[in-house]
């Protein structure tokens, strides 16, 4: 009888330790998702700082390009409207506005040869492109953390622990529907 009691106590201790481990893993995963989302917000806001500088440089050349100035303002507003909580759907507006702005800037550079020669404008265009690459990398990290977190709360035994204690909900990853429409993949089976 003593062996059965000891065995039951050991199993109970292992289950309790396992439960704490899963619980803490879910909390850690949620915190990683929030941190990754914060990184996305930081890069998006850094991009708007460059846009502010670019807007000043381009003002002289953009007398006839009011729509481009509107796109800069729209992008800045979209970035400022991003929620503090992780939400991949919120990025869709910002990424669409960025694509439109970059297209408009390319057209403006072609329309104004003096602007093309401006070192300040060229440097800012490179910086905007670099900031956009940083945003892309941050989104990749965010989506990976979202996937790991969502798996942790949806798969057994994490789903049981989450259902009983954490009550965390799925986080929405960022998806770029425009990019995915132009990409098709069929696995070799």
From TrEMBL:
The organism's place on the tree of life at top rank: Bacteria
Q: Which Pfam families match?
A: LemA (PF04011)
Lipid bilayer topology: Single-pass membrane protein
Compartments annotated for it: namely:
Membrane
Alphabetized Gene3D superfamilies for the sequence: LemA-like domain
What parts of the sequence cross the membrane? Answer: 6-26
Q: Which UniProt keywords apply?
A: Membrane, Transmembrane, Transmembrane helix
The family note in this entry says: Belongs to the LemA family.
Q: What is this protein called?
A: LemA family protein
Species this protein is from: Pseudomonas tensinigenes
Instruction: Output the lineage of the source organism.
Output: Bacteria, Pseudomonadati, Pseudomonadota, Gammaproteobacteria, Pseudomonadales
